[in-house]
Amino acid sequence: QVHLVESGGGLVQAGGSLRLSCTASGLRFHTYSMGWFRQAPGKERDGVSCISWSGGSIDYGDSVKGRFTISRDNAKNTLYLQMNSLKPEDTAMYYCAADAGGRKYYSGGYLIPEYEYRYWGQGTQVTVSS
Q1: Cα dist. 69→20, 25, 36 in Å?
Q2: pLDDT tens per residue across span 91-101
Q3: Distance of alpha carbon 14 from its chain centroid, rounded?
């Protein structure tokens, strides 16, 4: 059974930083492209960032480019999202997700669409105060 568990969320002041982690189990993590999504109250879930199974291809949503950094440690089955210069509009529940696996080709340059993700975590709340 696949489990994705996010951690690292919390309350931070505007301009501050947080590092989210997503620990995966029950899947061959190193063969899955991964993504981060977020959903604010009353809004749709949006893609934040994604990374290929090898870590060689990455993309970000426009609103987080230059502030967030996605990375992964395949030896630890863990995905990360370093979030710097946080803004109140970054407040949301953050989710990690895994695609269909099998080292599916991803070249970067676009966010992997939500429908291509097969597994989802339960989310971690990030709240940025002004």
Answers
A1: 10, 23, 11
A2: 999 999 999 88
A3: 20
